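W.,

You were right to be curious about this one. When I first looked at the sequence I had no strong expectations either way, so I just let the prediction run and decided to look at it fresh. Below is the sequence, 135 residues in total, followed by the output.
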Amino acid sequence: MKRTLSLSLIFLTAALSACSTSKTTHDPALVGTWKGLRAETGKCQFLSWTNHLKPDGRFVITFYRNAQQTQVIQTEQGSWLAADGRNELRTDGVRMPDVYTYKLLDADTVHYVSVASDPTSDCQGDYEFTERRIR
């Protein structure tokens, strides 16, 4: 009985240890506040946004009707993961995440290309955009 209990404790410890060493990835280069906008001449409706990517893996993004960001459309929040040039945004209450490839052009500029998006998104085309860090 003691041996079975000891083996069970060893396996439990190993399992818990494995869980604690596997961590979600949040590319530290993306943590911060970013501003983006869609081109007014693009195939998708114009909008601008401010995106707060927090180090704890949460985000808050506010969308605006205008470039001056005075006409709010809506605010969303959720969780994000980013590593190896792939970023996934999972908005609270939305079944499917938005998935992008990304490339840092410099410390304050990142370019995204949509890989997969929620089917209810307003723009389903080959969608790409650039965000600039707000300091």
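Here's what jumped out at me. Confidence is low (pLDDT under 50) at residues 3-22. And, maybe more interesting for your project: The chain has one domain: 25-134.

Coffee later to discuss?

I.
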